[in-house]
Amino acid sequence: xxFIFWDELSDFSFENTAVxxxxxxxxxxLAASVGNLxxxxxxxxxxxxxxxxxxxxxxxxxxxLIVGLVQGKEMTYNWSLSYNVSLVYLALFGSVFAFGCYLTxxxxxxxxxxxxxVVLFPAVALIISxxxxxxxxTWPVAVGIVFIAIGNTFxxxxxxxxxx
Length: 164
Prior knowledge:
This protein is mainly alpha-helical. It has one domain. 75% of the residues lie in helices and 0% in strands. The chain has seven helices and no strands. The two termini are 34 Å apart.
């Protein structure tokens, strides 16, 4: 990850918004890790994925509403077709189906292996940015992608040392 974000990290300064962004990214990783652990614990009770997904999203929506209200933000809605189509797409495919698949993956292969799929997200984002936004690759980014691939290969294919 350091290689992929080398350009941004090399220009790092405590006097700009990079500190806030880095702090939020670290908090996001911690929250996702806690979410994975909670999911694994609840799956021990053999709860259905759809219901777990529903509760998680309902709590997240409620939390977001409370934060918005506490901050005094005005609640508005954009009625345009493009906004509504993108909202439905993200709600269904980017949230409901994606989290349902991830929770199922957690159940099938375990949190230790499923978590490494998340490491691939920046690589996928870079490929999409290359195709649609004209992202220019650098050597550190390419080296970072190679390290991600090698690391995931080792983790997914490692042998359990406790087994004979």
